[in-house]
Amino acid sequence: MTLALKLFLTFAALSPLAFGGGNTILPEMQRQVVSVHHWLSASDFVVLYALAQAAPGPNMLVATLIGWRVAGLGGALAATFGLCLPSSLLTFAIAGLWWRFREASWRRWIQAALVPVTVGLVGAGAAVIAAETARGPLAAVITALVALLTLATRANPLWFLAASALAGVVGRV
Amino acid sequence: MPSPPEPPAPVSSADLFRGFLGIGLSGFGGVMPWARRMVVERRRWLDAAEFNDLLALCQFLPGPNVINLSVALGARFAGGRGALAAFAGLMLAPMAVVIGLGALYTRYGDLAFVQHLFHGLAAGASGLILATAAKIAWPLRRHPVAIAIALLVLFAAAGLRLPLFFVLVAGVGFSLVAARGAR
């Protein structure tokens, strides 16, 4: 099986599990890419994740970058379409039905039940990423400061990322 | 039973592509506010209530929310072609930018200065996702059962590194039972 096909299938398997948006599959993506397939080291994974955050657009561009890093342009397309295709087909199929069920009580029930699971998975993604990026006291302080400032202000997060990169250079993180 | 409201004006695949191209290029660290601005305020493709309904669908279904939004909105106005056009518009420019950044990292990643820069950047990105986790956890603060489920899921996924599929099935199962009790 070619590498691009493997990437496509790996990310396509994640897609229908991404309840609550892209961030919920982050821990599993890291597990697959680093521990199962050994495509990247844990430290490369977080750098690619950070790069994807520094770029404009949907936050799941980390898939594009991983695919590109592993297998070039074909890999980038394979990983991106793998991640988007199953969920997009589902959305396409269900969008029309949605209106009929929007007041249904079972829909609200499922929606409420998904919330704590989403919270747990996004928290797990944050834990997996933060454990890897906290290389020393300065890196940990940068992480904590950015988290607090993001919660406390409405400033564009890009400024925080730029300041973090600068602090990394100055402080030799 | 409410039926889907008629679109106010015909929206072509080319309109969808252009609209979502702008969203893809403008959104940093979260695209949804930009999507709302374009769809509701600037182009008036949907009113605020319709947008919220569509957003609820896109959050309900698996997959990145804004990508689901592009597909659902494209499909609504121009069928399969519209869905493709909106999706391509959304993804094209960000993919090019991110690959460009990746190429820079590969080319210059061995320089000590670049290493420090990217490790600083990664530490900052950690802060962003921690803040996201805190924000979505906040509404659960008075629901001890939901907090317990969230912590179990967190531990299973990040601590035990269990496969997502099992974590989802078990977590959603527990959560459905708990939510049923709370109704």
UniProtKB/TrEMBL annotation, chain A:
Subcellular locations according to the entry: Cell membrane
Keyword Cell membrane part of the UniProt annotation: yes
One Pfam family this sequence matches: Chromate_transp
Ranges annotated as spanning the membrane: 70-97, 109-130, 136-153
Keywords: Cell membrane, Membrane, Transmembrane, Transmembrane helix
Family matches, as InterPro entries: CHR_Transporter, Chromate_transpt
GO molecular function: chromate transmembrane transporter activity
Domain of life of the source: Bacteria
A single Gene Ontology CC term: plasma membrane
Principal subcellular localisation of the protein: membrane
Bilayer topology annotation: Multi-pass membrane protein
PANTHER family, alphabetized: CHROMATE TRANSPORT PROTEIN-RELATED, CHROMATE TRANSPORTER
Similarity annotation: Belongs to the chromate ion transporter (CHR) (TC 2.A.51) family.
Protein known as: Chromate transporter
